[in-house]
Amino acid sequence: MSTPARRQYLRMKSQYPDAILMYQVGDFYETFDGDARIAARELQIVLTSRSYGEDDRVPLAGIPLHALENYVGKLVHRGYKVAICDQVGEVGRGIVERAVTRILTSGTLSEPNLLPTRQNNYLVAIAPSRSQTGLAAVDVSTGEFIVTWFAPSELPAALEAELQRLAPSECLVVEGSHPNSHQLPASTMTVTPCPPYFFEHEAARMRLCRLFGVQSLDAYGCAHSPQAIAAAGAIIAYLEKMNVALLSLLTGLRSYRTSSYMVLDAHTQRNLDLLQGSRSGTTQGSLLSVLDRTITPMGARQLRRTLTQPLLDLSQLEERFESVEELYESPALRSRFAICLQSLGDMERIVGRARQGSAVPNEVVALRDYLTIIPRLRELLQGCDTRLLAQLANELDPCPQVVELIGKSLARARAAGEPDDDERLIRAGFHAELDELIASISGSRRWIASLEAIERERTGIKSLKVGFNKVFGYYIEIRNAHLKFAPADYMRKQTLVNGERFITPELKEHEARILSATERIEEMERSIYADVLRQLSVYYPQLMMTAAAVARIDVLLCLAEVAAHQGYVRPTLEQGLGLEIVGGRHPVVEYTLDGDVFIPNDTRLQAGEVEQGERIVLLTGPNMAGKSTYLRQVALITLLAQIGSFVPAGSARIGLVDRIFT
């Protein structure tokens, strides 16, 4: 017959049959039965067993509580779903109450140590139908929530291209759909079947309206795209099930059409090595590796999006060119911008964690420090001449209320290894009741701090030591050689190999006073800290707008730095079919030559402009002569121009291109 503890576990496990259940038992998280075998194999930990009755031994594999994030990250990255079951009741009174507090999957991670710093971590959902296919994507670590849709004539190429661009870590599909119907890159992405009701249009619409507090979705641009709504609604339903706290990050939905940008199908993205080198499988050897001189994590993620969505709007491109040119022409200005950006960390994700209520004090104190840099950055932008840089200055909000709140409420962030007896989470003067509680034991703390010197003098034992540990509390330690000098009022508490530990009635009294108050202090500080995070979350929209503006500034500075260091020039873009590149160079090949000189090439195409214009280039030559390099060079120069970058050439005049084929 199973024990009450075993029945409690089985009841929890029955609710999450498709997940590995991490079940907290004291200072460990334990897995049982089949979960234990998977955990032992994947994490390379010991598989043992535990008895729950005479004939009931079950497999067991456990990990320390402090190592949860590391081990869970390994399981999630290998495609497993992990449910975290925490102790939520008081220990010591029968069976401890437990509850699943969150479910982690590859697309729902928000913990900074489990995410790629310079890349978005997208969860996508695909909602197909005969008349339309919707695709929604969310990055729960930054709050980005986007949706698009495709006509049957655009499939499957447009969907495959967008999945290649987003590189999602997890994809939600309708349960029972054919596994190969969407040509999903299953080797790099977890495919998660979901119930059909997740994708039902009306239910999805109601979920979205409820989340955003609106009556209709007209303002989000997708009200007349039922499959786009279905895909976005499926993501909401999935997050509600996995970790409802993540929904607080989703404050809006952006609709877009892939046809609004230059079309880069999946083959083109791979053949041009935009984000990954074809040989390395990493960023090495890619166009991204040449361009990425971004300083902040937000900037790095923005550069990836910029690189894979070249613009078709000439006015937007001219604004980017003017901004890059102003930065390009002033090395001193670039240096001042770089100094500011070097002081900024990942504001975007810290703000998201604060909104969820999961940010740690070090992150919140860092956010305050980052915000103190924003006024200097805004001042630099206000001194610039171009319209785009001036507009970005207006989008930077230093949020003085946030700086003031964090400064008043939180004490200095605790460094690793520092003693925490005298360290406070909440700053003195912020909460009167907490200050009174701490003051009530300050006398006892001072008494204990002076006890060692007093007892050494009283006993004559110079090696006498006063210490504390979580198991035995405060103690006076005397080595065996000096035990004969121990006073009569010393009461033995613990025997060691080399000595004895004692306590006195007075020390016991002060200890009881401190430990009782300390427990209340810690509970009160946690409550006050949670309230501070709730107050910070009020400024979430302003903080995210500031983080987005910083990312765009970082990308413009990056493009200017690359142009200055690589000898790129500003291209001339125009509406037309002409293409004239003088002294063009392949940006990736040139970058990897390591001191050798790339031989530049010219390209001239004048299709439709003059009757005898060159409409086709017939390129011939032996193997390894550089034909493919030349073709890709023209494509990459065109692409660079249409993201607003300078290009590797002596000069370039390019008619806007709506698609690149390879």
**Rg to the nearest angstrom?**
31 Å
* Shape type: globular
Reported CATH architecture of the largest domain: 2-Layer Sandwich
Whole-number tally of structural domains:
5
List low-pLDDT spans.
413-421
Q: What does the largest sheet look like?
A: 6 strands, mixed
Q: Helical segment tally?
A: 22
E-strand count: 22
Strand order of the main beta sheet, please? 3-4-2-1-5-6
Rounded mean pLDDT score: 89
Task: Describe this structure in a few short sentences.
This protein is an alpha/beta fold.
Which key phrases capture this entry?
alpha/beta; MutS, DNA mismatch repair protein, domain I; MutS, DNA mismatch repair protein, Chain A, domain 3; 662 residues; 6-stranded mixed beta sheet; single chain
Task: Describe the protein in words.
With 662 residues, this protein is an alpha/beta fold. It folds into 5 domains: 4-104, 3-Layer(aba) Sandwich (MutS, DNA mismatch repair protein, domain I); 116-260, Nucleotidyltransferase, domain 5 (2-Layer Sandwich), CATH 3.30.420.110; 292-399 and 539-564, Orthogonal Bundle (MutS, DNA mismatch repair protein, Chain A, domain 3); 432-535, MutS, DNA mismatch repair protein, Chain A, domain 3; 567-660, P-loop containing nucleotide triphosphate hydrolases (Rossmann fold, 3-Layer(aba) Sandwich). 42% of the residues lie in helices and 17% in strands. The strands form 5 sheets. Strands 3-4-2-1-5-6 form a 6-stranded mixed beta sheet, sandwiched between helices. A 6-stranded mixed beta sheet has the order 11-10-7-8-9-12. A hairpin with a 3-residue loop joins strand 14 and strand 15. The model is unreliable at 413-421 (pLDDT under 50).
